[in-house]
Design goal:
With 349 residues, this protein is an alpha+beta fold. It is built from ten helices and 18 strands. Strand 14 and strand 15 form a beta hairpin. The longest helix has 30 residues.
Length: 349
């Protein structure tokens, strides 16, 4: 009787074990089992400068050089919701609505308002014009452009609506030699730099002006100028409506500009030809100043002849121009400038 009871007990235990075995999830039963060697090295998680503590028994660990952190712990750090499906073994991570979303939306609204304010401010400044005071601009221009190629200038600005007038004074009595050495190209370049700086601050301004002799050696305005719609300086040398320039008048102007170009000796310029073909001849006393001439570098002479060439070309842009330098007697040729040749400049002595 006792043996039968024992046998029944054993059968009951086996049946219970069989039922429990059938209740184990299929995924777990069919999974792969591995033995892992985990290292608990007191791994710390720092989020935005603050340490995040793991639940007891769920601390991060290292296996084969890879650090493992509980998913729920990382989800909390990144403000995410996490759900576990124990039947299908699926972890679902979703965004967690809360204060962060509202905060970000508020930041976006504030940024939009800031952008709208800045756009309105820019439009206000554009409509008003430059906030840079005209007197401050005048001071800055005098700081940068008060001296050019040994001529001392004083710049005065006046503003009327969208028009700015520029008066550039200098003493012709004091700086005549340096002034006469300035070519039209030099003056146009100087004026262009000044007008560019003005247009940087007053981009819609119309600019006009002129040079004025403060010593009253001459009362006429010299080199009147305006700017085009694109900001390019346009010169009106004679300050009148007559654009025709006679060769004799130009010859006089060139002699005024260049007669003392070289400090050691004087030169005289003669123009020949017509508006289509022009030859300029420069004369100097070579017999007397041969040493001073010999001391000149080729580039010094070439640049001198090019300056004369550009002055003539400015007035007669379609003319074929050639130039020579001679001794006073007109027989000894010292140099030639001929842009039509492959060798434009030639020095003979």
């Amino acid at each position: 009787m006792k043996g039968k009871i024992i046998k029944k007990s054993i059968l009951l235990i086996l049946a219970v074990l069989l039922v429990i075995g059938c209740m184990v999830p299929a995924g777990f039963a069919s999974g792969t089992k591995k033995m892992l060697e985990a290292w608990y090295m007191n791994v710390k998680i720092i989020s935005n400068g603050q340490q995040v503590y793991a639940e007891a028994g769920k601390e991060p660990f290292i296996v084969d050089g890879t650090t493992y952190v509980p998913v729920r712990m990382m989800a909390n750090i990144f403000n995410k919701n996490i759900d576990w499906d124990p039947v299908n073994y699926i972890i679902t991570v979703t965004d967690r609505p809360g204060q962060d979303v509202g905060y970000l939306n508020m930041q976006l609204i504030m940024k939009d308002n800031e952008i709208k304010y800045l756009e309105a401010r820019i439009k206000e400044l554009e409509d008003k014009g430059s906030s840079y005071d005209i007197d401050d601009l005048e001071d800055d221009l005098n700081d940068y452009y008060d001296e050019y190629k040994n001529v001392d200038f004083d710049i005065t600005l006046s503003e009327s609506k969208s028009k700015i007038t520029v008066i550039i004074e200098f003493s012709l009595k004091k700086d005549r030699t340096a002034w006469n050495k300035l070519t039209t190209k030099n003056i146009q370049s100087y004026l262009q730099d000044i007008c560019d700086d003005i247009l940087d601050e007053y981009p819609k301004a119309s600019i006009s002006g002129y040079f004025k002799d403060s010593s009253k050696t001459t009362s006429s305005k010299m080199y009147s100028f305006t700017t085009t719609s694109k900001g390019k300086v346009s010169l009106d040398i004679d300050d009148d409506d007559d654009d025709d320039v006679d060769l004799r008048d130009l010859e006089d102007d060139l002699n005024d500009m260049f007669y003392d170009y070289f400090k050691d000796f004087k030169v005289e310029i003669e123009l020949k030809g017509d508006e289509d073909d022009i030859t300029f001849n420069v004369y100097m006393d070579y017999d007397r100043y041969d040493d001073e001439w010999d001391d000149l570098k080729n580039k010094d002479i070439e640049y001198f002849m090019e300056d004369i060439y550009f002055e003539i070309e400015y007035e007669f842009e379609d003319a074929d121009i050639i130039g020579y330098i001679y001794d006073w007697d007109g027989n000894t040729r010292l140099a030639r400038l001929d842009p039509s040749r492959s060798t434009e400049f030639t020095r003979y002595k």
